Amino acid sequence: MSWGDSMEVDFGAGPATVPVWTQQVDLSGGKGAIPVPADGPVDWSALDKFPSAMSISWSGPDRGMLAALVARGMPALRWSDLPADVDLSATGLVNLGLHGTDLRRLRLPAGVESLSMDDPHPTLRVESPDDGRGTEVLLRFSEQPPAVPAGLRNARKVWVKVGGEFSARLLSSLAAAESLDVEFLDPPGRLTDTEALRVHHGLTTLTIDNAYDWDPSSLPDLPALRELELNGTLKATAKTLKARFKGTGVTVSVSGAKSDSWVSAHIDNPFLDWVEDSKAFGTAACKAYVKASTAVDGLPADAPDRLERAEAVLRAFVADLNAVEKKYGLIDTLNREHAGDVFDDLAKRAGVPDDTARRWFDENRHF
Question: Which of 57, 143, 198, 271 has the smallest count of CB within 10 Å of its CB?
Answer without folding.
Answer: 143
